[in-house]
Amino acid sequence: MSLISVKNLSKTYSSGLHALRDISLDIRSGEIFALLGPNGAGKTTLIGIITGLVTKTSGKVLVDGKDIEKDYRYTRGLIGFVPQEISLDIFLSVEQILKNQRGFYGKSANPALLERIMRDLSPWDKRHTEVRSLSGGMKRRVLIAKALTNEPKILFLDEPTAGVDVDLRKDMWEQVKKLRESGTTIILTTHYIEEAELLADRIGIINEGKLILVEEKETLMKKMGEKTLIVQLGEPLHSIPPALSRYRITLSEDKQILSLQYSSEEQAVSPFLQTLRDQNISVSDITTTETSLEEIFVTLIGKK
Fold this sequence. Notes:
The protein is an alpha/beta fold. The chain is built from 10 helices and 14 strands. The chain has helices at 43-50, 72-77, 94-104, 111-121, 136-148, 166-181, 193-199, 217-224, 269-278, 293-303, and strands spanning 4-12, 18-27, 32-36, 58-63, 66-67, 79-82, 154-158, 185-189, 202-207, 210-216, 226-233, 249-251, 257-263, 283-290. A 6-stranded mixed β-sheet has the order 6-7-8-3-9-10, with helices on both faces. A hairpin with a 2-residue loop joins strand 9 (202-207) and strand 10 (210-216). It is elongated and about 75 Å long.
């Protein structure tokens, strides 16, 4: 059974905006699921409905087999949520914020747990510091720590590394991996597609309120990833020989480079190189490049 099951979910705001259109999605226990889409695509609305912050117009959402409206207390207790915007009581210390959050869920005091969370996320040395004195990156760490205080089975991260520097972003990636290793299911939205490429097990792409694709990351890369074999010629080639016309190739303006485009599923490289030898075309160097997830994303959004 899926840990989260979304069926025919739609959301229309009073303004008439159709934020979500008949979304159906299952999220498995223990996976990292990356939800990608341009601004206004519906990512935050979808997360808001599942976490109980936004009211749906129609459809059904189950968390651990329970309806999010009928069994709100149970389902909300399974979820931790890190919002895109930093929203913390700036006059409280880090430690007090975490204690208050745990109490909000009706959990008993657990100083050892809070210490472990703060040590893992690095605000331990700042535990007695008021939030207003913290850097932006540290505030974001506190947001994640706050979301973990109720020991959630599911963690939503809405643009968790927006506005932080590269070093902090990489550090947070490591924290996300550790959380998954501990059994936490993670749903991630991000504008940094490299995050999805690095972290995700599966990827969903949403655009204009519609879920246009859900796929295993590796399968998606294999299906849609284009590769390019770049051949540096030993001598200029003034035109492409007829024997090479069956391949998707281009010749550079300086006549020094042949570029072969092929998909991950094609077996094109070996016969192509053999044809070059048969045609007595000299080669001085060969390199390859591969389509990134970002290029695949742009292609899909463009098509839709």
